[in-house]
Amino acid sequence: MKYLFSFLCSISLITSCKKFLNTEPTDFIQAEIYYQNSSQLLNALAGVYSPLTRDFLYGYNYTALMNVSSDEGSFTQPANADVGIVFNNFDYTNSIVERFWSSCYNGIENANLIIANIGNAKNLDTITKNAALGEALFLRGYYHFLLVQNFGDIPLKLTPTTDPNNINIPRIPLKDVYAKIVADMKLAETLVYPNPSFIGNSSSRITKTGVQGILARVYLYMAGFPLRDATAYNNGLNYANKVINSGVHGLNTFFESNPVNIRGQLGDSLNYSLINGNPGYVNNPYSQVFLYESKSQYFTRENIWEADNSAATTAGATAGGLIGSQAYGINNNNLAGETAVLGRASARINATQFLYVAYANGDLRRDWNISTYSFSNAIPTRKAYQTRGNEASGTLINRQAAKWRREFEPIGVGAPNKQGWVTGIKYPLLRYADVLLMQAEAENQVFGPTATAYESLNQVRRRAFGIVAGTAPIKSISITNGGAGYITPPTIVITGGNGSWASAIANVLGGRVTDITITNAGVGFGSAPTISFIGGSGFGATATANLYEASDAELPKGLSKPAFQDSIVSERFKELCFESLRKPDLIRWGIYLTQMQKILAYNNSTGISSSNTNIVRGNTLISNTLAAGNKILLLPIPAAEISVNKAMTQNPGW
Amino acid sequence: MSFKKLSFSTLFRFKLIYPFLLFTILSVSSLSAQSKKVSGVVKDSSSVSLPGVSIALKGKSTFAVSDAKGNFSINVPENSTLVFSGIGYEPIELKISNKSYYTINLVTKALILDDVVVIGYGSTKRSDVTSSIVKAPIEDMLLAPVKSIDEALQGRVAGVVVSSNDGQPGSAPNITIRGNNSISQNNSPLYVVDGFPLEANSFNDINPADIESIELLKDAAATAIYGARGANGVIMVTTKKGKVGVPVISFNTYTGVQSMNKKMDLMSPYDFIVYQRERDSLSNNFFSLINPNLGYVADSLYLRSQNLEAYKNVKGFDLQDKIFGTTWLRNYDLSIRGGNQQTKYSLSGGIFDQEGIMVNTGFKRHQFRITIDQTVNTRIKWGIIANYANTIQKGQTPTYINTGNPQSSLNIMNAVWSYRPVSPLDANGNQSINLEDEVLDPAIPSTVDFRINPYINQSHIINNNIANNLIVNAYLEYKIIPSLTLRVTAGITSNLNRNEQFYDSSTARGSIRTNFGAQFGVNGSISYIHNNTWINENILTFNKVYNKKHSLNAVGIISQQGNKSYGYGLRSIFVPNQQLGLSGLDEGTPQSVTAISSNWALASFTGRITYDFAKKYFASFSYRADGSSKFSQNNKWAYFPTGSFKWKFSNESFLRGNKILSDGNLRGSYGLTGNNRVNDFSYLAGLNIGYGYQTGYVFNNVIQTSALPSGLANNNLKWETTSQGNIALDLGFFKDRIKLTVEAYRKTTTDLLLNAAIPTSLGYNSAFKNIGSVQNQGLELSISTINIAHKNFTWTTDFNISWNENKVIDLSQNQESITVNVPFDRTYSTLPAYIAKRGQPLGLIFGLVWDGVYQYSDFNNNTVINTSAANAGKGSNWVLKDNVTTNGRARGLIQPGDIKYKDINGDGIINSADYTVIGRGLPIHTGGFNNKFTYKTLDVSLFFQWSYGNEIQNANDILLNGNSNNSAVYSQFAKYNDRWTPDNQSSTTFRTLGSGPTFFSSRTVEDGSYIRLKTVSIGYTFTKKLLKNRLQSCRIYMSAQNLITWTNYSGMDPEISSFNSALTPGFDFSGYPRANTVVGGINITL
Q1: Tell me: the pLDDT tens digits for B522-561?
Q2: A367-376, B160-169, B417-426 — which is least confidently predicted?
Q3: Would you say B987 and B979 are in contact if contact means Cβ atoms under 8 Å apart?
Q4: N or C: which terminal CB in chain B sees fewer CB atoms within 10 Å?
Q5: What is the tens place of the pLDDT at every residue in B58-113?
Q6: What angle do CA B863, B869, B871 make, to 5 degrees?
Q7: Nearest-5° angle of CA A186, CA A190, CA A192?
Q8: Do B1021 and B1084 contact (CB within 8 A), yes or no?
Q9: Which pLDDT belongs to residue B28?
Q10: Which of A5, A317, A334 lies at the smallest CB-CB distance from B637?
Q11: Given an 8 Å threshold on Cβ–Cβ distance, is A640 in contact with B757?
């Protein structure tokens, strides 16, 4: 019949039917003829990376909704909700789980298209080609890694989809999925660019040390729940060591002088608040790492690989990275006119009091990771310090998780539109501090708490106390002579020692200086500064300053292997909070549920009013989690998958 | 100027293809030789001369018409037979004898006319039709004061459901014929306007006054001639042509007013303050009505200077009064039609101008049409039709949805109803804020809520849809031999649409003070879509009667059609000089540019044979082969056969002359039709270059656009096929004073073109697949009666009712059901609102079964959770008993008066496992009922139309009868005053803040049945005597549309479908209210 009509066609129409009906698309390029030159290859590669910055992954959901439901933070919006994944009150129809699942597979499909078609590329130099192939392989592995951590057995997808009718796709056992992830990443290790200098010292793409660092992470997860492959620690250790020994990376030691926020607010906003008793805050080598990210700057020494959200700041983008605006940061949403300058932020995550109290005195990380101030409606250009008050009071848990802060995001030509929600803040996927802690953990598991393990952990701790490159903050000031005749407290002048920003105030009793309060410990003192007293109508007071020493920061020596592991658990909490690692860590260590019980006990013991909304919400999360039990350790296979894929099975309990 | 290009290329093609044809035309030289001249006069039974009677040689086409005095003259061959036919008269056959002058007396026809019915590629007598083709009562429909004829089609024809999404001026209604075949693809019929097939409804471009007839093709036998596009039925539109006779100039104008049918009752100032106080006390203390004086934020605002009682004396502020008004509607048509035996012409033009009842909305049309038909000689005829229309639809629709990030507070009606009725009273008892003039109510938290004074917002928004549409269609007909005619047609449509949007600083989308506007500032966009279609059809028709008993008609068609479309758009934000409007866009920050293009082609071969024996037994067969560019190489062609028969038993000898039964037919048909409504290149996968956040990524601080697969290719994609069987009985009684048609059909659509869900682990959410199956079966009944046929008084009635039963037979592989989200509000956007399930009809409303509220008896009150000293006495004492089901919230948070749902699976908690079907979106039956009365020259017509059995998900009530999102400063419908409180425990409406987690439920599902007095008209025609022959005729009239609606639905209007699709009918959210229209007009014929 077809031939009859073809015949009729040919006699009746000027053009043959075949030609007439074979229209060509004019609005898109067909996949088979793509991937020919390096710009096409980069376009395709961007398509593999882009799911990372979407709302469904590191743009918002994965970090702010899926991973905050642990001991580090609590979710504060909307006001009367207690349903959803962030409260562990959800089921397999949850759209956030679904979008997470489908975004990962979306990235895998895009990677597969490159892997399958890169052979067609001509006129491409081998290095470019290999790097693209390596990155595609790595990302395919990484997306599978995200899936396997969260879902257990999953379909392993290694070729582009061709047939929409072939839809019964079985799950592959965890072990085999991990084996393929490792294989993909090991192959990628040999193909990707050897270090960030090949890509302009940026961290938006993965390079060799990044692959190695993530491989270390993969092995650590293999060693933990649910696979519990104890031999994996050894491999993890090897790969962590590869990164450390590469010499490409290190912990940040640099810090700018106190950061000037975008409004130009410097001094007053960051100084000690006598009334509220907040410590003086000063920029330091730890906060500098996140300051770089907030400013959308690369810093490959420590930030090995980042989800580069700055595409979100393209003019007109309507959705995107919400780090610093809706996830973390400091709320300024009700300040008319200020959002254009400070950057619109309605941060939804508060730090738990449990996290706050985990930090020791002198640990500089606390006051960066947990905000000490909010923006005030009354004086919008200024910051109002949170009432510090009693740590047991409800106000403390109203402090926001402020590891990334929009107020430092640049403004001006070519810069993000700060009135929108979309931020260009980069989000860390692999930091050198994480590599050190992984190395310490693996070393301890394989060889026990060796000096190497201690040293890696202590590097992180010393930096946390501001003890870097032979410098430190002031720990204390001791009065050597109270002097006499002081009517008013004299001004304390701290000079020398190469440090900066330190300040202190004196108390006078009976004409003598009896007490000195450090209002700002400062940073960068190479040697103890000179303390002098000016004014107050008295004379003769002298004092000496003492700097923090390594021993103040370092872990006590001689810990047992389990005790050292406990220190790792605690250190990762303090160092890596809000980096989408806490909940997965707790789960792989097998202590997620017990940790939730701990925090419940803690909340109850502090006597915080249970009418505090955030405590109620936090406790709701905990009771939901404990009620869910072990099923919560794996996410449910989403409805969109399981309803059409008959070979799919549901995870236990869902 | 691609139109020019196209038309030239078409002509060029035309010439090349048919050189033989031109040759034949040129070679035609002489007519038959043996002819004689015959003349005479035509009169009626009372000897009044009849102009305009057509005189035809039997079996051939018309070639003479009587003049104004009834005279005629014609050249005929010897011994031939002439047929005289005039509209409204029985045709008479005259055997030519030796005489050369005749006086013919025509007799008035029986009241029911055996008129001509337009079928696909031809026309036939009504009595010969074998398939299900219904002629719409166009004269009755033209009485309705509507912008386009489809708005008057509702309820007129059994089996045809016309429903509009809402009352927005200029929006096209949705037409479905015999139910929805397709789940995810377009279900609208094919439109054939003067022979030109159009896939989109283009009634907006056609002046109703220009329409001669509308035929609806319902069964496969009728539509299969349109093959691949016929599955959803076909609407054939024929426009008026010139007629032989003196030129007739006709002028028709009407003017009228439109107004609101209904307003919603809103909370009074007092009610509002009471409600705000409850919100405070409850949000501070969960459920502490023990001490209701604690911590009122509302008190500090509203009761600072006045007490609560003072608000009883304040008149509430209702924005409905401001944003809606009584507005004008105007229409003017002018036409001149006439012609002689060789050339007939028609020129017409019209202006339609409708202001919407909502501020800054409306619809305008300027339209012009010309037709020429010329008979060159007895063998050759040609003609051309050109229609140009310019339409402007103005104003943002209240259902506007930003699909990516739906914010219900951007919807106008939602903002109108939730606007607070009062601002705090000062010491003098005056309102401290002028809510009417304030752009942004200072109390609304603008960062989470985009409500801006909706009146000011709507007045400032520019949103124009401007369409320029040109249709040109030409034909050339050549009679090869008397029984064989070749007709060649060529046509183009050129459609240019421009959409302009501009949001200045007084709009929710442009004000820097709202969250949304803050991202973009003053912004605007312009986009163009240009759509060009051309067609060429070559139709060979054979028509012959053998032995006076065997009539044979055969048609062969070769046709080809092609389309190219382009779209370009630009957007600009932070426009500095907003007073420049759209011209100021170049000063803003340029945004993404859109550029799209596509094309398709269709080639077809069709044959049809119609045969009847002695006008008793009729049969018709057709076969169409369609080739489409939209499918892959192996699936380009599809074949659509059909057959139908009819037994006209009233013509059998045993019934002939029967006094009671005047007409009786039994008809049956079966056939296959197709649906190709799929994207132009769905079978291919492409890579789209995206830009920006959603698809891009940054490499070393440089934005790298990304290439992403546009979708999953399916090389096996093919046509959707619908098989339909139809059986019908036509009966006429008492000389057809009672006529009745009953039809029953069943159609099954298979290989459904479904954008089917596939496992997302494939990397895609969906792919186009031929999968799934839907069945529609139904019964249609139409009755027309002439109740009284007195000389001075007549009364006729038309009634029709149709039942359609829709059933999903099969969905995507492995899929038991499809749930559909309706993104009307951010918090609801991911929840399933509708479901399509195997074995069930489409459009089922989905959600939880509402079970009233929790009462005190459901709780233990002996547990005090909070014992801390600082908060003694606060917090809840009420804890849900262990055996009582939760409502989805944590058990400890549920309070008396909270919403309660039925626990379908009995596990003690409410979650998605408890979702069930809570309503049907599709009606059980629909119909219409028309009564016409005439008294002398006074005519009155009353038309009712109804829909029964459909239910509506009233989403307005979700937000405005309970405030489920707990938005601040958000007033409610007055009915929420009856909510549960400790003093009003009998109420089933949950307490303030008691809405529980976000779910769709049966609480807001309502019966959407209605009956509407759709059109009323009364007219008076002045007799020629009264007009002293100065005018041919003059009719003055008044008519009204949507005058009264009877319904139990509590919303604005039961005919609503804010998110219309086959899967989501009957969802009411912020629809444009339907206006009632009353007009007065005059119709003059010169």
Answers
A1: 999 999 999 999 999 999 999 999 988 899 999 999 999 9
A2: A367-376
A3: yes
A4: N
A5: 767 657 788 877 888 888 877 788 888 777 677 788 888 878 888 888 876 654 44
A6: 70
A7: 105
A8: no
A9: 38
A10: A5
A11: yes
Q: Please check whether residue A288 is in contact with residue A261, taking contact to mean a CB–CB distance below 8 angstroms.
A: no
Query: Can you name the residues that pair with B784 across neighbouring β-strands?
Result: B739, B798
DSSP class per residue in B156-214 = TSTTEEEE-SS--TTPPPEEEESS---SSS--PPEEEETTEEESS--GGGS-GGGEEEE
Token code pair at residue B550? 């065997």
> So what's the pLDDT on residue B463?
93
Where helices occur in B310-446 by DSSP H, the ranges are 319-323, 412-418
CA dist., res. A527 & res. A548, Å (int)? 10
The count of C-alpha atoms lying within 13 angstroms of the C-alpha of B108, restricted to the half-sphere facing its C-beta, is 7
CB contact under 8 A, B814 and A161: no
Structure tokens at B831: 């929840």
Q: What share of chain A has pLDDT > 70, as a percent?
A: 85
Please say whether the dihedral angle defined by the alpha carbons of residues B140, B145, B148 and B152, taken in this order, is positive or negative.
negative
Instruction: Give CA–CA dist B98/B120, Å, rounded.
Output: 41
From the list A13, A105, A200, the residue facing B760 with the nearest CB is A105
What ipTM describes this predicted complex? Answer: 0.87
Q: Which residue has the higher pLDDT, A167 or A442?
A: A442
- Subunit contact B707:A47, Cβ cutoff 8 A: yes
- The token duo for B880 is 């849900």
Asked if A26 has any chain B CB less than 8 Å from its own CB, the reply is yes
Please tell me the distance from the alpha carbon of residue B558 to that of residue B537, in angstroms, as a whole number: 6
Distance (Å, rounded) from C-alpha A622 to C-alpha A616? 10
Cα nearest neighbour of A607 on chain B: B868
Residue B233 has pLDDT above 90, yes or no: yes
Residues B946, B155: contact at Cβ < 8 Å?
A: yes
CB B117 within 8 A of CB B124: yes
Interval A565-614: pLDDT, tens? 999 999 999 999 999 999 999 999 999 999 999 988 887 777 555 556 66
A12 to chain B nearest CA, in Å? 7
CB A496 within 8 A of CB A530: yes
Q: Which two tokens stand for residue A468?
A: 């870097």
Nearest by CB to B703, which of A82, A205, A311?
A311
With contact defined as beta carbons under 8 Å apart, do A2 and B548 qualify?
no
Q: Which helix (H) or strand (E) holds B475?
A: strand B462-481
pLDDT, tens digit (0-9, with 9 covering 90-100), for B722-764: 999 999 999 999 988 999 999 999 999 998 888 888 899 999 9
Tell me whether residues B639 and A26 touch, CB distance under 8 A.
no
Cis amide leading into A226 (omega within 30): yes
The nearest alpha carbon in chain A to B279 belongs to A80
Nearest alpha carbon to residue B141 among B157, B161, B125: B157
Residue B29 class from Cβ within 10 Å (0-12 exposed, 13-18 middle, 19+ buried)? exposed
Mutation target for A interface from B405, B409, B630, B687: give the one with most A CBs within 10 A. Answer: B687
Q: Evaluate the omega torsion of the peptide bond into residue A78 and state whether it is cis, within 30 degrees of 0.
A: yes
Instruction: Report how many Cβ contacts below 8 Å link chain A to chain B.
Output: 318
DSSP string, B760-781: GGGS-SEEEEE--EEEEEEEEE
Residue B33 pLDDT = 43
Cβ contact, residue pair A30, B757, below 8 Å: no
| pTM of structure | 0.82
- Tell me how far apart the alpha carbons of residues B211 and B241 are, in angstroms, rounded to a whole number: 9
Q: Show the CA angle centred on residue A95, arms to residues A91 and A100, nearest 5°.
A: 105
- pLDDT per residue as tens digits for the range B770-809: 888 999 999 999 999 999 988 889 999 999 999 999 999 9
